[in-house]
Automatic annotation (TrEMBL):
This is DUF2927 domain-containing protein. It comes from Cobetia amphilecti. Pfam families: DUF2927. The lineage of its organism: Bacteria, Pseudomonadati, Pseudomonadota, Gammaproteobacteria, Oceanospirillales. InterPro entries: DUF2927.
Amino acid sequence: MPCLPHRQLTGLLSSSLRASFSSSLRAPWALKALGIALLLPSLVVVSPSQAAERWQRAAVLTDSFMEVALKREYQPGSSASLVRWQAPIKVRVDSQLGNSRMQRQMSEVQFRHLAAITGQPLSFVSSAGKANLRIAFIARDHMTREATAYVGKQQAATPGMRKALREGVCLTLFKTGPDHAIASGLILIPADYARQKARLVDCVVEESAQLMGLPNDSDKVFPSIFSDVTVDTWLSPLDYVLLKMLYAPELSPGMSAAQVRAALPAVIQRIAEQGELSHAIRRVRQGSLREWAGD
């Protein structure tokens, strides 16, 4: 997903307030398996246990985390600072189009699942003034208006943002404070277009996970919802572990790529000792949207 920094009011060199955005560009569910066959014809088929062994390796976990947490699609070759929530998340579900009851249920299950994985305090509020994260189910025709209202006309007019609004299915935006902690977030899901593309559930799952602080998409991360070359609609065991790593006490917002890489061996060792790697396949399903949907 595309991700660009946004600097508001204080100029291009200011780090006091930033926003990043990401959009879902993947193909519908039915095409994902076909895409793998077309793009990777030379891969040797491996058993589930063999595949699990690969993503459980420390080197793979480290590289995967660096890809989705420290890189940005529109800043190739460079690394950003680590971002994540520090303050309690207060979610407002704003259903303007579609089945509001189902949308609220999906959102509540998904965000509570993420809170349980990360340990990040989270609650749901009905007042816009009390919310610092809004998930909005809107008409596709309203995407540009909503994005502009959040980031401002200047950021909304950048080539990256225009491309995301034009080509993406759904869109995630967030702002960070001086300490690089996420201060607010917005998820825009065009309910009409997402259903047409069979991406409504995908949007809820992927965008909410990215807004926790894993904003980059990378085909190097697999199996994962953060990869365009994937068959996953739901959080994968690898995604579960990456979220655990993101909210590890050894890490903090604002850490550089070098600082994060240096800290990850201790993080991985600790979560491995806690059984998070060996039991990730089972634990990622507990309380998940996948479990709620009966898949």
